[in-house]
Amino acid sequence: MTELLNNYLPTIILYFPLGAIGIYRWSVWITKKVVAKKYRPINENGHSDTLSIVVPVYNEDPNVFQRALESWISNNPDEIIAVIDHTDGACIERFKKFQEENKNSKLIITERPGKREALSDGIRAAQYDIIALVDSDTIWDPHIKNTLLFPFADPLVGGVGPRQDVLDTNTLARRLFNIHLDHRYFDEMTYLATVGNALTCISGRTALYRKEAIKDLCEELENETFWGVKCISGDDKCLTRLVQERGWTIRYQANVRVLTPGAPDLLTLFKQHLRWTKNSYRSDLKSLMSKWIWKREKFLAYHMIDRFTQPFTLLFGPIYFMFSIIWGHWLIAGILLAWWHLSRGIKLYPHLKHRPSDILILPFYIFTTYLMAILKIYAMVTIRKQGWITRWDESRLQAGVNHIFRALKSTVPYFATASIIILLSFGVVKYKDVTTTSNDNGNIKFHEIESMITDNCQQAVLNNLENQQFRYYTIEQNDTLTVIAKKYNGNLFAIIEANKDTIPNPDYLKIGQQLKIPVLELGNILTKDGLFAFKESEITFDESSKTVYVEGRGSVVTILEIHNALNNELILEKLNNKEWLLKTNLLIKKGVTLVIDDSDVSWLKLQSDKDEFIWLQSNGGNILIKNTKITSWDQENQAPDTNYEDGRSFILARQNGRMDIMNSELSFLGYKDSLKPGVAWHTTGDSPNNYLITGQVLDSKFYNNYSGIYLSGTVEMMIANNEIAYNTQYGIDIRNGANNLLIKNNRFHNNAKNNCFQAM
Fold first, then answer.
1. Do domains 469-522 and 538-714 have the same CATH topology?
2. Nearest to residue 387, comparing CAs of 114, 83, 87, 56?
């Protein structure tokens, strides 16, 4: 369990904000859903009231208007009052013909622009107890009047709203709008109707009010302002708020359905949603700043606050999705896509149950929800900007403004909206940097705890620092102090001084004798210019083990020299100018230094496929890698070997040697084996202090290895200014006996487990 947690902990931490937001959003939805299960509409109770229908009309399709009139009259209202703009001649004529057959209808022709004014005229003219404010394109189901009136049996009920549906879902925009309506009325409205006596809004498509509740609100309705600007749209939100503010309760009748055509195209739909969102935000802010909502309807207040946060929390999903692709987290990106479809499918189940074919447009619905989130942020930025119904001629509402000024002014909201989205994205990036990269001082920073990894590594070293001022080298045949000092790039005179009590004569060394090597002298980096050969190397190939052996203490060898010595393309093949394919194992023996640099190698490929793989190893020798690239290589697929399960090429430096890596890239190496995890420095034996293994790792990249860098029994190593990423296990794997390590200014990211692991 611990291993599993360690494996996924960095990813969990990186995506924790998204997960936390998801848990919060689902908790809210589940709570609302559970509460909404208790909702029951008011069924037949014998109550009946007189009903006036008031409809404002402007630039309506006469045929749609005619159909709406017929649906209303089939419900036997006591009167129908049409307030029609004087410019709409077609609808005026259509209503006059309607009057000939229906004497309980009344026509008001108005020259006052604005829906609020038209509604006020109709309310003042209404004669009966209940007034239904209805849009000119809204269709009623037959025989719904009585059901709509049932809640008014309670004298405290001031308003009633029905469920809404789309008349004909014959376009994509209308199908999307239908999903939106079902989501609202199945979840939001039933929840609010259960926890309290208030709703956010009784939609203007059909809103029933007790005449007593609204007869004195006409002036406030016409003259409502927001931040000094007169409100033109949002009449339904305004009336709902004013009625509730005065102590009336509001009911929702889910068993009554009215139909609306809906926007025919996506552009119109988005414009409508923008207008509705602004209206909602303006009205909700007014409600939240009032005493009545906090005194009587706290659940409604919390619901309104939550609606303000929704667009911001919702956008974290696509932001994280975008960055998961940028970061190469393809699995996470796939999980997010799958989860979006699954979660939306669950939440929309009531809709999909009676319209299963809409599952086909679920991806587009998901996409539009994120567009709507951006739209809602834009609505916040432009909350003071007013507009009426989609068909309204705005020239009748305001005087002309300088077009250049308006154009310049209109760019500000777009810039502000974009800035907010960029800020959210920047927050995600900074969070990633804080949790996975280095701080300004160069110490590793992980999980927001400064220097956590570096301090832990250093602490493990300091525990035994007293005993680690020296490491020991066992003298072998043909060793001299000069050769040994050169091998570790140390100071000859410092070594002589450290051993003066046991080796009084530097010219006389005893085979098997232990030589003290001051650890602080090991920090000097090996360089090609500083190398010199004491003898020629011996290069041989053993067919049985398929291994190239390089011997000769004090010798220096290159890849090109190995190729020239063996002259066998089945062992080492030159692919390009400086590209090589090593097809057999390569073992560097004691005292030999292998140089792999850009003088003759730009890319060294180590043959590795599903059948076999080769390795590069030093046993008591040195390896210098500089300005080059080394990877495993699947010759058949012409790509690095990405499958570590069946074994993969690796590089290993073992006791009494060193390996220095500078400005190079080492990737797709290693597999699950303690000695073969990728690029490793390792000593073995019961007394690791008797062996030396060291080196410097600077300005290099370690990608897609099993472990990026593996250290065991190493001493005085510096690992600095490297990028260590996308490794299967750890970025740096520090094992027993590693001491005096300096790890700084490295960039860690996307390592499957921790950036640094210690097993001391």
1. no
2. 114
- pLDDT for 455 equals 35
Q: Which two tokens stand for residue 419?
A: 């800035």
Angle, alpha carbons 571-576-578 (nearest 5°): 85
Whole-angstrom distance, CA of residue 141 vs CA of residue 705? 67
CATH, domain 42-311, list 3.20.20.70, 3.90.550.10, 3.20.20.210, 3.40.50.300: 3.90.550.10
310 vs 374: CA distance, rounded Å: 11
**pLDDT at position 474, please?**
79
pLDDT score, position 497: 78
Question: Which of 204-213, 358-367, 750-759 shows the lowest per-residue confidence on average (mean pLDDT)?
Answer: 750-759
Angstrom distance (rounded) from CA 277 to CA 271: 10
Q: Which two tokens stand for residue 78?
A: 């006591």
Q: For residue 235, which amino acid is it? A: D
Q: How far is CA 706 from CA 70, 275, 675, 703, in A?
A: 74, 55, 11, 9
Strand partners, 683: none
Which of 297-311, 518-532, 619-633, 724-738 comes out lowest in average pLDDT? 518-532
- Checking if the pLDDT of 300 tops 60, the result is yes
Measured in whole angstroms, how far is the alpha carbon of residue 319 from the centre of its chain? Answer: 4
Please state the CATH superfamily assignment of the domain spanning residues 469-522 in this structure.
LysM domain (3.10.350.10)
CB atoms within 10 A of CB 365: 19
The per-residue pLDDT for range 98-137, each reduced to its tens digit, is 999 998 999 999 999 889 999 999 999 999 999 999 999 9
Cα-to-chain-centroid distance, residue 340: 12
Strands 593-597 and 622-626: parallel
Scan for tokens 């909404």, then name that residue.
Answer: 36
Looking at the predicted structure, is the pLDDT value of residue 4 above 70? no
Give dist(CA 393, CA 434) in Å, integer.
Answer: 52
Q: Is the pLDDT of residue 17 over 70?
A: yes
In sequence order, what are the residues at sequence separation of 6 or more whose Cβ sits closer than 8 angstroms to the Cβ of residue 695? 526, 653, 658, 659, 660, 661, 681, 714, 717
| Amino acid in position 323 | F
Residue type, 618: S
Distance of CA 705 to the CA centre of its chain: 26
| Class of domain 538-714 (CATH, top level) | mainly beta
DSSP state of 152: G
Residue 486 pLDDT class (50, 70, 90 cuts): low
CA distances from 742 to 443, 711, 745 (A): 10, 12, 10
Are the beta carbons of 593 and 629 closer than 8 angstroms? no
Which amino acid, 594?
L
421 Cα distance to chain centroid: 13
Domain boundaries, the chain: 42-311, 469-522, 538-714
Q: What is the C-alpha separation between 448 and 9, in angstroms, rounded? A: 14
Cα distances from 387 to residues 78, 277, 279, 397, 458, in angstroms, run 33, 12, 10, 9, 65
Sheet-wide strand order for 723-725: 572-574, 579-582, 603-607, 629-633, 665-667, 701-703, 723-725, 747-749
Give yes or no for a contact between 153 and 144, defined as CB atoms under 8 angstroms apart: no
What's the rounded Cα separation, in Å, for the pair 391 and 56?
Answer: 13
Token pair of 219 as six digits: 């002036």
Q: For position 462, what pLDDT does the model report? A: 33
Q: How many CA atoms lie within 13 A of 667 on its CB side?
A: 16
CB 138 within 8 A of CB 206: yes
Prediction pTM value: 0.60
Mean pLDDT for the stretch of residues 277-292: 93
CA atoms of 340 and 367, how far apart (whole Å): 10
pLDDT of residue 305: 95
Give the C-alpha separation, 31 to 13, whole Å. 27
- Asked if 268 contacts 390 with a C-beta cutoff of 8 angstroms, the reply is yes
In angstroms, how far is the first alpha carbon of the chain from the final one? 21
